[in-house]
């Protein structure tokens, strides 16, 4: 039998809800932003296919964050996936910024994804240590 203290579980759940909200807002912006809006953030306009595809991807990820947040006790693999996805996004965005195009929003997004990955990792590790077996 196993029982949980809820301190870190609560913080991890809140963090995942906030990341889900962030992902959903990014999705809305990507799907609805005009060429002028994209240029404002440093991106070139044109065919919006990949822009909208990125928005749909963010909705899919939002679903993963919400699934993990609503059932942390059975979300170990999903949490590992989230940490991996956020870390991969951070590395990609920071490399893109450093070597391809110095778009400020790409740098901010890469740093934000890195921080989110780190926070999920740290809270997940603390949450695992809260499990007490009787």
Give the helix proportion (percent range): over 70%
Number of domains: 1
The helix tally amounts to 5
Beta-strand percentage range? under 5%
Structural category: mainly alpha
Helix and strand run? EHHHHHE
Largest sheet: 2 strands, antiparallel
Strand order of the largest sheet: 1-2
Record the SSE blueprint.
Layout: E1 2-3, H1 7-32, H2 35-40, H3 49-70, H4 76-99, H5 104-130, E2 132-133
What does this molecule look like?
The chain is built from 5 helices and 2 strands. By secondary structure, the chain is mostly helical. The chain has one domain (2-36, 49-133). Helix 3 (49-70) packs antiparallel against helix 4 (76-99) and helix 4 packs antiparallel against helix 5.
Give the key terms:
single chain, 134 residues, mainly alpha, 2 strands, 78% helix, 3% strand
Give a short overview.
Helices cover 78% and strands 3% of the residues. With 134 residues, the chain is mainly alpha-helical. Strands 1-2 form a two-stranded antiparallel sheet.
């Amino acid at each position: 039998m196993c029982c949980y203290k809820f301190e870190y579980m609560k913080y991890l759940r809140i963090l995942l809800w906030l990341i889900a909200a962030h992902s959903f807002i990014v999705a809305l912006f990507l799907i609805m932003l005009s060429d002028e809006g994209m240029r404002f953030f440093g991106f070139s306009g044109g065919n919006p296919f990949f822009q909208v595809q990125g928005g749909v991807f963010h909705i899919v990820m939002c679903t993963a964050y919400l699934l993990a947040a609503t059932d942390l006790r059975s979300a170990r693999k999903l949490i590992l996936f989230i940490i991996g996805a956020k870390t991969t996004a951070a590395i990609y965005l920071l490399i893109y910024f450093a070597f391809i195009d110095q778009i400020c929003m790409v740098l901010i997004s890469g740093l934000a994804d890195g921080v989110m990955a780190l926070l999920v990792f740290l809270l997940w590790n603390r949450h695992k240590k809260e499990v007490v077996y009787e």
